[in-house]
Specification:
229 residues; alpha+beta; seven-stranded mixed β-sheet; 5 helices; 20% helix; elongated
Length: 229
């Protein structure tokens, strides 16, 4: 009776990733990859167009909004082009939605595509060949224009209602980028531990919460509400 190799007859396994040179499927991929290391090559520098906003997964949405404000206001551009790939796609969509709510009358066309990436691996042991892995990386381009665009395009979206747009001065956008988010803990009026009074405000104690006097307690420290009137 002929024996069937595990995974050899499943087309999904064969089509999942196009790999040349890796060991047979009977070996786990993680075990095979321990004998290889990825070859990192310097990225080719690409020219960014004047109207382009290139979104990355590490960038901030506020920075992209400031870039759009500069293009529309200072450089008098009638349209901007937001580009992203891979993990940055969701951030590109978020940036476009915010920009549409800061500038009135923006028409939108979204284009989806993909690019082919070839990763190369070199062996760590003698007797093994170099291998390559081909994968498709999704890309997105969102064009926002003050002028009318092709309404018949599958990715076209008409401008949102002007009541949803809140235009912001360019100086305010720049200031918002410099604002930080701070967290802190306030100190209450009551004493340390289980005090008689829990209050909110500034004082020497570390009381927490709001409330009325609740009776006797074991707290240390003085509360303003306990002083005789």
């Amino acid at each position: 009776q002929a024996t069937r190799k595990k995974g050899s007859s499943n087309p999904r396994h064969r089509a999942a990733v196009a790999i040349r040179g890796f060991p047979p499927r009977s070996l786990s991929r993680s075990a095979a990859m321990q004998k290889y290391r990825k070859v990192y090559r310097p990225r080719e520098s690409s020219v960014i167009d004047d109207d382009e906003i290139r979104v990355t997964s590490a960038g901030s949405v506020s920075a992209y909004i400031s870039r759009a404000a500069k293009l529309f206001n200072e450089m008098d551009k009638t349209s901007v082009k937001i580009t992203a790939s891979g993990n940055a796609l969701s951030k590109a969509v978020s940036s476009a939605e915010v920009i549409k709510r800061r500038f009135k009358g923006l028409h939108q066309i979204t284009t989806l595509s993909s690019i082919e990436i070839v990763d190369e691996y070199e062996p760590l042991e003698e007797g093994l060949d170099k291998v390559s892995e081909t994968r498709n990386l999704p890309t997105m381009t969102i064009k926002l224009s003050k002028d009318a665009l092709d309404a018949k395009d599958p990715g076209y979206q008409e401008p949102i209602d002007e009541s949803l747009v809140q235009e912001v001065d360019p100086e305010e956008i720049a200031k918002s980028r410099g604002r930080g988010k701070g967290r802190g803990k306030g100190r209450g009026i009551g004493g340390r531990g289980r005090g008689m009074i829990k209050g909110v405000g500034k004082g020497r104690g570390k009381g927490k919460g709001k409330g009325e006097p609740t009776g006797k307690g074991k707290g240390k420290g003085k509360s303003k509400d306990m002083e005789p009137k």
